[in-house]
Fold:
Amino acid sequence: MKFREYITKQGTLVLAGKNARNNEELIEQIKPFEEVFHTAAPGSPFVNIKGKPKKGDINQAAIFCARYSHDWRDNQKDVEVHRFKGKDIFKSKTMKLGTFGVKNLKKTKIKKEDIIKFIKNN
Structure:
């Protein structure tokens, strides 16, 4: 398996990178209109909803992103997740492997309880 995969309750495929190199590969395959997620803190997978999200997909993908982040691993607290479109991702020559810039992001706080529930059910 190239990426971490999660199928939402609505049947939508969600992909996540496993490391910096894998995040680079994930970003390459994202379409401009697709939803992408990353935590506010470094050490997060980039997460991509494939195609147009259905109701509930965005929240589930954000929880999936938080669950595999270093922020969650290290702190076991609520995690801030950023959501943006594929077209809003950019990379300059000075950015290290797995690092990208983002514009037009939306912030959401994923509650500790929701991450724990996700872990127990998946």
User: Anything to note?
Assistant: Helices lie at 20-29, 57-67, 70-75, 112-121. Strands lie at 4-7, 13-16, 35-39, 47-49, 79-85, 89-90, 101-102, 106-110.
